[in-house]
Task: inverse folding
């Protein structure tokens, strides 16, 4: 069918075998691609209680109908697996050109299973698929690995795990093009557990055909015009990248500060986009994902850091907002040079900056409150101690000393500390919090608790600018709509930042993209149903793992429910006006999502979505 290749490549590492399989048309029609396709196969193939770092876990790297076509803002890829950090469902979305390259090589999906007897990497081209010896790559940083694997052809798309993933750090990420990441949930550790260092793909130079070239051209023009219109209006992401969000988040009282003890950071204007612009004037270069007309990403063009290896000049990324929030404000650090170095080290070691910033912030608050146990008291670290953070990153990646404790993530580390720590441990379902405090937006907490992945900022927010000053039920419909939109974007796959084009991308646009790429008769209603199906199936994957009713896992941390924000524009707010409001709103959200009050999808919902077994 146009838009899809209809093929998957299955790599069985234990047997060192590769085979090509067809993907049934019905599966593609019911799950689209990307996140949806990976969720379908994960649920079908990874049984309950599988050890995420064991031989039976699998990782799915998926493209969608838009990858490799002329449609812009689609240089994306999805990864889906069982998370070693949360022991639940995880999906992650990454930019660059890996997704389009997978598609051009002839596949919608790459399935990796088993465990190789020794370190290997996978090479894929249109005519050749091989499992190769990676003994000499093992131990190398993601940067060194990528340089090596791109030598024969610099345009090869590589993803690799770094030293952190090799050592099974629970929040290790996968890195592509030096600074793009499948960041969340420990996918780098899944590679590490499989003795898999990297995947390198080079497809042929061709565009993937869609069903209707004229409509495709019209759509390309329309999306480009909407991006241009946003630029004319001063489009912040194009001109200022995501670092512009530092000032915005601080101004609305949502910026993580000192392990989320506050939401305004006095040093915010030393780590924002204007500081970066002034300090590195004329030395920034754009490094967009393939075919992007928004172009939000920046790297440094010139050598300016004493710590940077010479071969890495030009590939040092400007930290994204999430990193500036979690490794800046959340650690009380206002030194932009230090944060750039931390970001670079995390990229090289293969560490998720969101989880890393959280676990170090947790350690800092334990230090602040004198709660570290005796055996860790030589590892104290105060908020603002950037030099010590830089040293800690190496310890985490190598699991040396305190680094071994931190490598378990916030929940895992808290579990080793006894009763003193849990109220300071910020996570939902084991996934650490992104740089947006739920006490700053009405209903945002419901987005975090009902995401199968846990506390992710990319699962749909309610459309409101209000803080949690009233009952959350009025924002539920917009939250559900946005959740569905995010799922569609991650399945087609189109960048989340299409919320910033003018007018912003909506569900009807997603239906149009599906129509144009695949020729299916998609409508806003039909793609909403697909989105509901994917949301429900991801939830069912988690339910198979639970010991208790699902509702008991859909929780916000103690701090967000019970500690009012101490100062700033959101002073006095908790994430909900009361515990009762949280419970009532959650029950209502379940109802609108077709779930029982305990959080199980009803039989009728499963039947309507074609998910009854
Ligand atoms: S907006 Fe940014 S992240 Fe999104 S596709 Fe473009 S360059 Fe990549």
Result:
């Amino acid at each position: 069918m146009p838009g899809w290749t209809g093929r998957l490549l299955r790599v069985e590492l234990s047997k060192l075998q590769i085979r090509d399989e067809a993907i049934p048309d019905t599966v593609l029609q019911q799950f689209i691609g990307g996140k949806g396709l990976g969720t379908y196969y994960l649920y079908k193939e990874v049984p309950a209680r599988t050890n995420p770092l064991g031989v039976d876990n699998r990782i799915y790297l998926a493209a969608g109908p838009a990858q490799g076509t002329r449609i812009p803002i689609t240089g994306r890829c999805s990864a889906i697996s069982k998370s070693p950090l949360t022991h639940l469902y995880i999906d992650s979305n990454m930019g660059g050109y890996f997704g389009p390259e997978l598609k051009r090589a002839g596949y919608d999906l790459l399935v990796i299973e088993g465990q190789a007897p020794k370190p290997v990497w996978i090479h894929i081209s249109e005519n050749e698929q091989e499992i190769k010896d990676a003994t000499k790559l093992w131990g190398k940083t993601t940067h060194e690995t990528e340089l090596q694997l791109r030598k024969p052809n610099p345009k090869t798309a590589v993803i690799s795990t770094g030293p952190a993933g090799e050592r099974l750090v629970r929040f290790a990420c996968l890195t592509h093009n030096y600074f793009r990441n499948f960041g969340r949930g420990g996918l780098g550790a899944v590679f590490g557990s499989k003795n898999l260092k990297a995947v390198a793909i080079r497809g042929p130079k061709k565009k993937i055909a869609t069903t209707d070239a004229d409509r495709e051209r019209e759509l390309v023009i329309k999306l480009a015009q909407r991006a241009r219109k946003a630029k004319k209006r001063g489009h912040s992401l194009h001109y200022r990248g995501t670092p512009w969000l530092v000032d915005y988040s601080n101004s609305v009282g949502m910026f993580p500060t000192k392990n989320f003890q506050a939401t305004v950071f006095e040093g915010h204007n030393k780590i924002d986009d204007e500081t970066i612009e002034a300090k590195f004037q004329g030395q920034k270069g754009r490094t967009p994902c393939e075919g992007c007309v928004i172009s939000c990403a920046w790297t440094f063009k010139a050598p300016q850091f004493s710590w940077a290896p010479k071969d890495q000049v030009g590939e040092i990324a400007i930290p994204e907002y999430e990193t500036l929030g979690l490794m800046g404000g959340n650690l009380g650090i206002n030194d932009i040079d230090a944060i750039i170095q931390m970001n670079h080290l995390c990229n090289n070691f293969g560490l998720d900056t969101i989880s890393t910033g959280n676990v170090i912030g947790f350690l800092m608050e334990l230090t602040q409150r004198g709660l570290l146990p005796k055996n860790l008291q030589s590892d104290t670290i105060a908020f603002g101690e950037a030099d010590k953070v830089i040293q800690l990153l190496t310890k985490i990646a190598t699991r040396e000393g305190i680094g071994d404790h931190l490598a378990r993530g916030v929940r895992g580390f808290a579990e080793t500390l006894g009763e003193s720590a849990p109220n300071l441990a910020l996570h939902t379902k084991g996934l650490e919090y992104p740089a947006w405090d739920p006490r700053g937006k009405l209903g945002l907490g419901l987005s975090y608790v009902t995401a199968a992945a846990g506390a992710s900022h990319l699962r749909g927010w309610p459309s409101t600018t209000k803080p949690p000053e009233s009952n959350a039920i009025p924002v539920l419909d917009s939250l559900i709509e946005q959740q569905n939109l995010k799922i569609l974007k991650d399945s087609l796959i189109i960048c989340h930042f299409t919320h910033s084009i003018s007018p912003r991308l909506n569900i009807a646009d997603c239906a149009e993209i599906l129509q144009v790429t695949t020729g299916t008769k998609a409508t806003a209603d039909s793609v909403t149903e697909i989105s509901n199906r994917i949301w429900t199936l991801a939830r069912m994957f988690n339910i198979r793992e639970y010991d208790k009713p699902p509702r008991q896992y859909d929780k916000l941390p103690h701090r967000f429910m019970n500690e009012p924000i101490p100062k700033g524009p959101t002073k006095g707010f908790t994430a909900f006006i009361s515990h009762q409001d949280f419970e009532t709103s959650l029950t209502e959200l379940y109802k609108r999502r077709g779930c029982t009050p305990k959080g199980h999808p009803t039989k009728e919902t499963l039947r309507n979505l074609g998910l009854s077994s």
Q: What stands out?
A: The domain at 7-202 is CATH 3.60.9.10 (Aldehyde Ferredoxin Oxidoreductase;  A, domain 1). The longest helix spans residues 524-545.
